[in-house]
Write a structure and sequence with these properties.
By secondary structure, the chain is mostly helical. 58% of the residues lie in helices and 4% in strands. It contains three helices and two strands. The protein has helices at 24-40, 42-54, 59-81; strands at residues 7-8, 11-12. Strand 1 and strand 2 form a beta hairpin.
Length: 92
Amino acid sequence: MVWNEKQSGEWKAEDIKRVRSGNKYMRYYLVEAANLVRMHDREYADFYSAKYDEARTHKHKRALVLTARKLVRLVYALLRTNQLYTPRKRGG
């Protein structure tokens, strides 16, 4: 779930295709899971919104894939440490 970088000197391409390696079904379900997580977890909703605002093209798709990458890191950490997920408490 990454994009190739195309650049030459100061010029950098804006509309580049995502690398499509790995299991396509796993990618699909991870992105779908990230979409649901962002709807129910405030931290992921804030992350999605920040990435949505940063993207110039394909805002929803790019923000969703980046949110899925964040979710994969969380799942990996939880499996590695054998812990259950508990959302962070927000002060305020």
